[in-house]
Amino acid sequence: MATPETSEQLKEIVKEKYARISEQNKSVNESSCCGATCGCSTVDYVVMADDYTKLKGYAPDADLGLGCGLPTEFALIKEGDTVVDLGSGAGNDCFVARSITGEKGKVIGIDFTEKMIEKARVNADKFGYRNVEFRQGDIENIPMAGGVADVVVSNCVLNLVPDKKQAFAETFRILRKGGHFSVSDIVLVGALPEGLRKSAEMYAGCVAGAIQKEEYLTIIEKAGFKEVKIQKEKRIELPDEILKAYLSEEAMNDFKEGKSGIVSVTVYAEKPVNCCAPGCCD
Predict the structure, then answer these.
(1) CA-based radius of gyration for the chain
(2) Considering the entire predicted model, what is its pTM?
(3) Do residues 32 and 40 touch, judged by C-beta distance below 8 A?
(4) Mind listing the pLDDT tens digit for each residue in 131-161?
(5) Closest CA to 88 of 27, 164, 22
(6) What backbone torsions phi and psi does residue 158 show, to the nearest 5 degrees?
(7) Which CATH superfamily is domain 4-40+62-270 in?
(8) What is the full DSSP assignment across 115-141?
(9) Biggest alpha carbon–alpha carbon distance for the chain
């Protein structure tokens, strides 16, 4: 867990970085360090983002190309549900969720960055959505009452949060009993070569806060969630242009054939109907 000083510094870095991202278009974000301009935009690869374009409710203006999965596709959202999107960005997952919840449901997006909230609100107004709301807030201290969400989604955001234990505790708190989440995130499997770790952080800033997959799943279970399962998993293939800059040819081949790597996972878990964990009675 990060120290308070380090935690606040990390949050400010994220806030500044994603404020810049909010002003860039999707093509720039997909090809430049998970949205951060840092000299690698000449490599034209969509490293992490999945294709939203065929999903109902997809809004091109709200798609900044920053995700690493399609959590709304796996979230078992029903008509009339209250859905919360943690790290909602320009609103893309919220609008997809809204297409399922319909007029009877409600969608609330939470984001740390003021400019992202502004952009998302403009998009919601443009579509005339009155049951989609965006709030500025910290995922470690979600600005919501407890026990109000039927479903929580998040896309490549929780790995950026310094205190993941607190983030999942807050997710647990805002869910109603019997509610569930579907979260896409970046995790690590095995030990990455030091050079590659540096490369991954440069090319895809989302990897900087990633932890081991097993540790990630353990945090979720210790928060009180049950029925924890991986709905989708895919290895993130960094392009050879990046690998060659930090690894010898032999090391690069070993890495490609080995068991260690950077992985996108979509994880599902439920808040039990009967439980004694903190946040259960909110």
Answers:
(1) 18
(2) 0.82
(3) yes
(4) 999 999 999 999 999 999 999 999 988 988 8
(5) 22
(6) -65, -25
(7) Vaccinia Virus protein VP39 (3.40.50.150)
(8) HHHHHHHHHHHHHT-SSEEEEE-BTTB
(9) 57
